[in-house]
Design goal:
By secondary structure, this protein is α/β, with parallel strands linked by helices. It is built from 11 helices and 8 strands. Strands 1-2-4-3-5-6-7-8 form an 8-stranded mixed β-sheet, with helices on both faces.
Length: 278
């Protein structure tokens, strides 16, 4: 069932709510949509209540006047869960969606989490002041502040669509079907360029490295061998979260940034195994 929810500051979130059973809440990445999880929605709604959310201004959610910040997104998701009377859930966050979960943990603790799935998000996207070379590798930082600002300006500019296309090219495997690649870009380009650039800067700037030792729920960390996110960063996050599990998908298993849609059968097998554990 497709639903809409209005947040406390007037933004409208579109979301899918299907199936019955334990709640599984799925959060997509920067500029992408809940439709990315179409294979997981179909598969897991047989055993779970699956709630897949389009962040404000993303996917089917209409553009919003304000609030394109990670902590506002975190508040949006908590408000939505309270509206749907979901006291706790298995929470899945891919890419920036994982950062939204980390913000929720920072504000609300972990009581709303049953299990946690973190997919291919570095501890910080931007290099932070004072980081050593080893810190940069462990965190998975991709670029410095000046590069971040330059990318954001490019997204806002006349060549913004081309810049977003080039960004996507670095996140997929070489063998991805052209029609799937075109659809991913189409979903990306739904979001207002100025708002998505502002969100990019906010998202990239935050260092989440102190969050992971506070996570006390069963956790699965997923990375990709050929992802633009260095798998070493996923190994480091795994090492920080006590008792967590780690899966790195190889290139043949869609092991870039979109494993759940490039190789959905393999991804669903891994996720089902984790969900079934007591």
């Amino acid at each position: 069932m497709q639903k809409n929810f209005t947040t406390s500051d007037g933004a409208v979130l579109a979301y899918t709510d299907v199936g019955q059973g334990p709640a599984l809440v799925m959060l997509p990445g920067w500029s992408q949509s809940a439709a990315m999880f179409r294979h997981q929605i179909e598969h897991f709604s047989a055993t779970h209540r699956v709630v897949a959310v389009d962040f404000r201004g993303h996917g089917r959610s209409p553009d919003a006047a304000r609030g394109f910040r990670i902590f506002r997104f975190a508040a949006d998701i908590m408000e939505l869960m309270k509206h749907e009377k979901i006291q706790n859930a298995t929470m899945l966050g891919w890419s920036m969606g994982a950062s939204v979960l980390w913000a929720m943990i920072d504000i609300f603790g972990t009581s709303f989490i049953n299990k946690l799935i973190l997919i291919d998000e570095p501890a910080t996207v931007m290099r932070q002041a004072g980081m050593s070379d080893e810190d940069i590798l462990n965190a998975g930082a991709l670029f410095d502040a000046a590069t971040m600002i330059a990318i954001a300006e490019q997204i806002k500019g006349a060549e913004g669509a081309a810049a977003r296309g080039a960004f996507l090219d670095g996140m997929i495997t070489k063998g991805i079907p052209e029609d799937l690649k075109a659809w991913l870009l189409q979903e990306n380009l739904r979001v207002n360029a100025v708002h998505i650039a502002d969100l990019f800067v906010d998202h990239c700037s935050i260092d989440w490295s102190d969050i992971f030792t506070r996570i006390d729920r069963p956790t699965l960390v997923i990375g990709g061998r050929v992802s633009h996110v260095n798998p070493r960063s996923q190994e480091w996050i795994h090492a920080q979260i006590k008792g967590s599990q780690l899966v790195i998908f190889e290139e043949t298993d869609g092991g870039a940034h979109f494993s759940f849609i490039e190789a959905p059968a393999r991804f669903n097998e891994v996720l089902a195994g984790f969900l079934a554990e007591q």
